[in-house]
Amino acid sequence: MSALLKIATAFIVVVFLLLRKVKLGYCLLMGSLVLGILFGIQFIDYFKFTLMAFRDPANQKLIITLSTILILANVMGETRQLERIVSLARNVIRNPKIVLTAMPALIGFLPIPGGALFSAPLVEKTDIESEINPSMRSFINYWFRHVWEYFFPLYPEVILATALTGIKMSKFISIQFPLSITAITVGFIVISRIKLTSNIQDPVDGDWKTLILYVLPILIPIVLILIGVTSWLSILIGVFIALAINRKSTSELLTKVFRKFPWDVILNVVGVVVFKSFIENTGGIPQMVQFFTQHNFPIIVIITVAPFLVGLFSGMGIVPIGVTFPLIIPLAKDGNFYSTIMLAYACGFMGVMLSPAHLCLVVSNQYFNADIREVYRLLAIPVISIIVVALFLYLVKGG
Predict the structure, then answer these.
(1) Which among 41, 303, 311, 377 counts the fewest CB atoms within 10 Å?
(2) What span, in angstroms and rounded, lies between the C-alpha atoms of 387 and 328?
(3) If DSSP codes are grouped into helix, strand and coil, which group holds residue 143?
(4) H/E element holding 123?
């Protein structure tokens, strides 16, 4: 059995269990077990790969960062700061759909894994009529959280792509920017039928200055992260700012926050990092890429399908870039180099956006208790649109 079929089988098991309403963390742990069996690893390797996942400093940082995000979200929720932000934003901006999508788009400038968890409470607090289901809320939060990831120069995958290709950052941004415009446009098309009310349960009088004050617990961490401060420390500072703005008893507030801490989210993260460890350490993805090269697939298939599958199976934006770009770069024609890179990036990222192992999809669906089948249905047209636009630009430029 080829590596492609082995990894696909593990994903089928994960999706099957998800459809049976099994918690994602357990689904991914079972997927890891299936990967180990199919790749024939030794019994001791199950413990070794799991331990490697927890000993990885990046994974430790991830769990700590997401924990601080959960704490900040709970603090701002308990003190009703999130409701005030939404109310003030509506008073200032006046267009409820722009307010709704601007919340996750703002957090999209935050280049941290699981950032959709940061924006989810803001989306939740936006006053949407009752017919808007949790899956639509999850889609809005998830999709608009990622509209900048095609070009924003602080994302690791953008940095890696420019490093591997030798394309200047300014040129890379100009190449990729149409994809962000497409993402925003198709996102608005999907939500065009949503009817938003202008009623706020707790109206707040204020202007831009008041809005900025309440948004400081979010803005300050973003600025700190952008200048290089560690993610979890930046968000912890945001927690202290939120506590300073609120007038309630700090000890009583923190007691409520920790009592309501959503441990299920952390379980899902554990499942993601363990599954990622098994994907990496079984050697499945390099074997899958080798499969494409050995069987003489057409160049267009390698440019599109290989990054897409690697993104789908890994759930991490940087993986399809790091794994497939060294293969794709030599295949790119001189006159069509830029559009080839753009197409490969788009396909890889769309695979990531559909991956059940993508942390933002995990935490967003978890937060809103969304039906994953319905979320995938909503994602279908936007994902296809991005790939079609990228493919069109590639062909127009002589691909």
Answers:
(1) 377
(2) 17
(3) helix
(4) helix 116-125
Nearest Cα neighbor of 390 from 191, 181, 187, 189 is 181
CB 382 within 8 A of CB 319: no
CA 58 to chain centre: 16
Partners of residue 196 on adjacent β-strands: 128
pLDDT in tens, 325-346: 877 887 787 668 999 999 999 9
Mean of per-residue pLDDT scores for the chain: 83
**Interatomic CA distance for residues 36 and 280, integer angstroms:** 11
Which tokens hold the place of 297?
A: 């697939």
Q: What angle do CA 290, 291, 293 make, to 5 degrees?
A: 65
Q: Contact 140/123 with Cβ under 8 angstroms?
A: yes
**What are the backbone angles phi and psi of residue 350, rounded to the nearest 5°?**
-65, -35
Q: What is the 3-state secondary structure (H, E, C) of 256-289?
A: HHHHCCCHHHHHHHHHHHHHHHHHHHCCHHHHHH
- 225-251 residue pLDDT tens: 778 788 789 889 988 898 888 766 677
Nearest to 117 by CA among 76, 177, 56: 76
Q: Which residues are 12's β-sheet partners?
A: none
- Please name the residue that has the structure tokens 């995000």: 69
pLDDT at 137: 92
The amino acid that residue 51 corresponds to is L
Mean pLDDT, residues 111-135 taken together: 74
For residue 317, give the nearest of 148, 98, 103 by alpha carbon: 148
Helix axes of 299-314 and 3-19: crossing angle, nearest 10 degrees = 50
Q: How many helices (H) and strands (E) does the chain have?
A: 20, 0
202 pLDDT more than 50: no
Dist. CA 87–CA 103, nearest whole Å: 12
Integer Rg of the chain from CA: 21
pLDDT of residue 201: 47
Backbone angles phi, psi at 320, to 5 degrees: -60, -30
Contact 308, 347 (CB under 8 A): yes
What's the rounded Cα separation, in Å, for the pair 76 and 165? 42
Other Cβ atoms within 10 Å of 31 Cβ, number? 26
Distance CA 106, CA 318 (A): 21
Is residue 128 helix, strand or coil?
A: strand
Find out whether 307 and 301 touch, Cβ atoms under 8 Å: no
Distance between first and last Cα of the chain:
33
pTM: 0.72
